[in-house]
Amino acid sequence: MTDYSDIFFLMGAMVMFSFLTLSVNRTLLTNEMNRVGHESNYYALTVAQESIDELRWVTTEAELDAELDTYPRTINYKNDSDEDASIPFSVNINKTTSVIETDDVRTVELVINVQNDYGIGGEGSSPIQLLFTKSFLK
């Protein structure tokens, strides 16, 4: 080193390397957060679809009302990546009045709301909602 300019170039190179490292880390963190959010959305849709599949087997409106009395409830969904881990989802099903009513058939609409603390419905965001129409013979 012959003069002070080499020291300044070295300090500048270290500062540039630090900024580059921070930028790469921020990008990796953002990508990981997006991946976790999308994975959580996928599992929430799966939980909502499983709730709909359970309700398809209900044959009378009295059975449906008895099943809806068990909601809201927390469903621990086991993901595929880890055998011991599970993601808790809060599931609530709301029954609206009959959508279509004829002499023989009564049809009701169900709204399935699924949310969790990992990005779906947490901290003021809206939960995932699925609509399901169920018909009963009178």
Mean pLDDT: 82
β content, as a range? 25-35%
- Main sheet specs: 4 strands, antiparallel
Can you tell me the residue ranges where pLDDT is under 50 for at least 5 consecutive residues? none
| Number of contiguous helices | 2
Separation of the first and last Cα atoms:
95 Å
User: Looking at the structure, what is the overall shape?
Assistant: rod-shaped
What is the oligomer described by this structure?
A: single chain
Helical proportion, percent range: 40-55%
Radius of gyration: 26 Å
Based on DSSP secondary structure assignment, what is the total number of beta strands?
4
Note the run of SSEs as H and E: HHEEEE
Topology:
Blueprint: H1 4-56, H2 61-68, E1 73-78, E2 86-101, E3 105-115, E4 128-137
Antiparallel strand pairs: 1-2, 2-3, 3-4
Structure description:
The model has no long low-confidence stretch (mean pLDDT 82). A four-stranded antiparallel beta sheet has the order 1-2-3-4, with helices on one face. With 138 residues, the protein is an alpha+beta fold. The longest helix has 53 residues, at 4-56. Helix content is 44%, strand content 31%. The radius of gyration is 26 Å and the shape is rod-shaped.
